[in-house]
Amino acid sequence: MVSVALAATRALVANPGSAGPNKMQPADYHMHTPLCHHATGNPVDYARVAIERGLDEIGFADHNPMPEQFDDWRMSLTDLPRYFDLVAEARGKFPQLTIRLGLECDFIAGHESWIEKLAGMAEWDFLIGSVHYLPGGFEVDHPRHMSRHMSGEREELWASYWKTYERAIRSGLFDFVAHPDLPKKFGFRPEGDLRRFYEPAVRALAETGMAFEINTAGLRKDCREMYPAREFLQMAHEAGVPLTINSDAHAPGEVGAAFPEAVALARAVGYRELVRFCKRERSVVAL
Ligand SMILES: [Zn+2]
Ligand SMILES: [Zn+2]
User: Fold this and answer.
1) Number of structural domains in the chain
2) What CATH number is attached to the domain comprising 40?
3) Angle at Cα 224 formed by Cα 221 and Cα 228, nearest 5°?
4) Which residues form the domain of 245?
5) What are the pLDDT digits (tens) for 111-170?
6) Which of 120, 135, 138, 252 has the most CB atoms around it within 10 Å of its CB?
7) Dist. CA 63 → ligand 1 center (Å)
8) Which ligand is nearest to the CA of 129?
9) How many angstroms separate the alpha carbon of residue 8 from the centre of ligand 2?
10) pTM score, two decimals?
11) Which ligand is closest in space to the CA of residue 218?
């Protein structure tokens, strides 16, 4: 009782008006490190900001290593021990903060066994599944492919993305999937009601029992909207799909970014719980 009351008071004092009395802030489970070559600040710096902002739990999920050089925006396999050290350093420095160890894993059809191998390389608290690559090598959110989002190909790209996303969910390799409607990043969406794309993914989530995230990074991109769109969130809530809320921080200043807005959106569609992870076991906390 005492610790719950203290934690609630601390959250209120640290971040007035955000989560409200007796409500914990969401755990931020999607944070990167400089090992992926496009993030700044070390885990200790992210942890410090998390405490300042009243979070009680965070988790690192850097871009997963591949068996060999694959692209220039992920950890290399040889840096994995360094990753563990950096997270351990943050845990040592801030024992009052729960710090989880995760990975953001690219789902690429044909590479499933590699993810299984990675899963055995550490005592992960969670593995996130992401789709950044489509069959044929298209990079969904890479600026060098932005022009293809502006072309007549858009409908086809979205169809391919959501088919791959559904496969990622049904692979059963992950604890939750990231930024559901990532292809909207640059602000281009197909015509009409987009629920035609969301429906199979939400059904796959419901059938497999996998969770997903609200990812506030979309607010910082051209689409100026969280991932996923409200309609997806609404459908997922109706289907009973578990939810996490994450920032996708690539810099310490982004830890917990726009969490009050994300909490308000989740509650508006009916969510009253979030899930947390420890050693790939899921638990539920009030939202
Ligand atoms: Zn990244
Ligand atoms: Zn991602």
Assistant:
1) 1
2) 3.20.20.140
3) 95
4) 2-286
5) 999 999 999 999 999 999 999 999 988 899 888 888 888 888 899 999 999 999 999 999
6) 252
7) 7
8) 2
9) 31
10) 0.91
11) 2
pLDDT in tens, 201-232: 999 999 999 999 999 999 999 999 999 999 99
CA dihedral 150, 257, 73, 83 (to 10 degrees): -160
Burial class for 137, CB neighbours closer than 10 Å (0-12, 13-18, 19+): exposed
Ligand 2 centroid–CA 253 distance in Å is 18
Phi and psi dihedrals of 33, rounded to 5? -140, 165
Q: φ and ψ at 114, to 5 degrees?
A: -65, -40
Ligand 2 centre and the CA of 230: distance in Å?
A: 19
**Among all ligands shown, which has an atom nearest to the Cα of 31?**
1
In angstroms and rounded to an integer, the radius of gyration of the C-alpha atoms of the chain is 18
CA of 207 to the centre of ligand 2 (A): 23
Report how far residue 199's alpha carbon sits from residue 5's, in angstroms, rounded to the nearest whole number. 40
**9 CA distance to ligand 2 middle (Å):** 33
Which ligand neighbours the alpha carbon of 250 most closely? 1
